[in-house]
Amino acid sequence: MIAIHETTPFDDQKPGTSGLRKKVPVFQKPRYVENFIQSIFDSLAGYRGRTLVVGGDGRFYNREVIQIVIKMALANGFGRVIVGQGGILSTPAVSHLIRKNEAFGGIVLSASHNPGGADGDFGIKYNAGNGGPANEKFTNAIFERSKAIDRYAIAEIGDVDLDEIGSSEIEGMTLEVVDPVADYAALMETLFDFDAIRAHVRGGFTIAFDAMHAVTGPYAVEILENRLGAAKGTARNAVPLPDFGGHHPDPNLVYAKELYDLMMSPDAPDFGAASDGDGDRNLIIGKDMYVAPSDSLAALAANMHLAPGYKDGPVGIARSMPTSAAADEVAKALGIDIYETPTGWKFFGSLLDAGKVTICGEESAGTGSDHVREKDGLWAVLLWLNILAVRKESVAEIMRDHWARYGRNYYSRHDYEAIDAAAANKLMDDLRGRLDTLSGQMFAGLAVAQADDFSYTDPVDNSVTEHQGIRILFEGGSRIVMRLSGTGTEGATLRVYIERYEPKDGHLDLDTQAALSDLIEAAEAIASIAKRTGRNAPSVIA
Ligand code: VG1
Ligand code: CO
Q1: What is the atom index within ligand 1 of the atom nearest the CA of 111?
Q2: 254-308 pLDDT, tens per residue?
Q3: Do 433 and 497 share a domain, yes or no?
């Protein structure tokens, strides 16, 4: 039985950097989820009879929302829904299932690296038929629709069984409950030399992978332990919990500190890695060597030809604007194009679809390739493992060798989380108002060469996206970028990105914060962050 219910709009259903993210109690408001899902379906055309992939990272409210999505997909005329067993699918696994099954699209239920639980965050994101996050044009259409919506359709049936793998018919729609890991693991086997990695592990190479009580646990157990032969317990915190054990499932130096401390200790394994809530991010730490995500992108691009799936090397590289220019040096050396996009994976889709780039990355610990249309945490881990198994060097040796060839982009991001939104907006607006006057001025002994507000024209579809971050470029090539987060759910988060290039014959082994100290001072001098935010120090330094 299909019911049409009347509804009234909510005014806050505007998707951010990566879908709609709100506190769980907001999503629990009557009709809130239904309105947003119906707004997505209303913004699509031509999906009748087609397939929708649905899955989430297992956080609190995942199962309830999956039931709603399935019942609404049925009522709105989808022909088939593919859902991960228990409602679980990592974000890259959703992307792969959409592509493999030629689905019309998919819905990812996740707030990624944001904390979970009854008072934590929840999120909903639509991915298109290419497997990638919907582009800006589409997310704007969803928002417009959400402001006018007056009814939604839902099948009035009992909850469907999400726990038994198999296919069933429900009122004319096929429901397929699939193993969340199997297809993804099979894809990884086509890209990487599992035999070489297995042999390396057998030879004594040790790994610690922190799944942070989030979605990658089952994937890491199957791939690292069962298929690659790493010791039991290699995957830590490997059971997904609805509240992620009360932690932020954000693989950075603050929230993955335990792993960091282990990797800096005398008992460190050879390789440490972590992923986030929905499995699309990766943190890489070698024994005594933290690899900044921007550096990881560059090192992977430079070495990816060592993996069978990428034996010709990348055709092009894309990075988000705030990501360091380390990858640019690699692109230069390889004689391939480098693209600089706004923050968020949705901007890489058109470049990947057009075959312009093979690998993409963001400073926020996201790396991925043209195998799917999302960033992919375990993929990056496996590419690292493949490279290490072939080169038979340590992570530290590979990074030192990299800097000696290309120079080093010292890089750090300072986050001021959950600050007052009005103060944050004013800080950005005032800075924007002063952009024209900054060039030529000195701050902390550094001269500004140029300042602008990043605007991006997509080279494939020519769409323009403005106000994507304020860039302050200094004489000599250093830079500071400031932007406000589009994924937070509390107040505003100011991100300050700081970068300095050191040529290959320079000082390559400095402490990062020390190497950037004059730029950090300049950021404060330019934007008066402490005074305006009331914070004397960032909440996260990555
Ligand atoms: C952050 C990161 C961005 C990433 C986005 C989604 O966005 O900076 O690089 O693409 O999160 O990642 P923002 O707007 O808060 O800076 V995930 O793993 O949360 O889907
Ligand atoms: Co994520």
Answers
A1: 19
A2: 899 999 999 999 999 999 999 999 999 999 999 999 999 999 999 999 999 999 9
A3: yes
Q: Which of 116, 113, 141, 114 is nearest to 126 (CA)?
A: 141
pLDDT band at 7 (very low <50, low <70, confident <90, very high): very high
Question: pTM of the prediction?
Answer: 0.95
3-state helix, strand, coil in the chain (%, to 5): 35, 25, 40
Neighbour order of strands in the sheet with 207-210:
235-236, 207-210, 271-274, 283-286, 289-291
Q: Is the same domain home to 401 and 415? A: no
Element (H, E) at 257: helix 257-264
Nearest CA to ligand 1 atom 9: 364
Task: Tell me, yes or no, whether 359 and 421 share the same domain.
Answer: no
What is the three-class DSSP state of 283?
A: strand
Selected residue with higher pLDDT from 487 and 96: 96
Q: Residue type for 274, please?
A: A
Q: What's the pLDDT tens digit per position in 190-217?
A: 999 999 999 999 999 999 999 999 999 9
Query: Beta strands of 302-385 (E only): which ranges?
Result: 316-320, 337-341, 359-362, 366-369
Q: How far is the CA of 155 from the centre of ligand 2 (A)?
A: 31
Q: Are residues 453 and 489 in the same domain?
A: yes
pLDDT at 486 over 90: no
What domain range includes position 95? 2-179
Asked whether 34 lines ligand 1 (CB < 6 A), one says no
Total domain count, the chain: 3
Boundary (domain end) residue, out of 364, 390, 406: 406
Confirm if 22 and 120 have CB atoms less than 8 A apart.
no
113 Cα nearest atom in ligand 1: 19
d(CA 333, CA 133): 31
Q: Give me 397's structure tokens.
A: 């040796």
Residues 242 and 281 in one domain: yes
CATH number for the domain spanning 434: value is 3.30.310.50
Helix axes 136-146, 32-42, angle to 10 degrees: 130
**CATH code of the domain in which 295 resides:** 3.40.120.10
**Angle in degrees, 0-180, between the axes of helices 293-303 and 395-406, rounded to the nearest 10:** 80
Q: What is the mean pLDDT of the chain?
A: 96
Same domain, yes or no: 423 and 474: yes
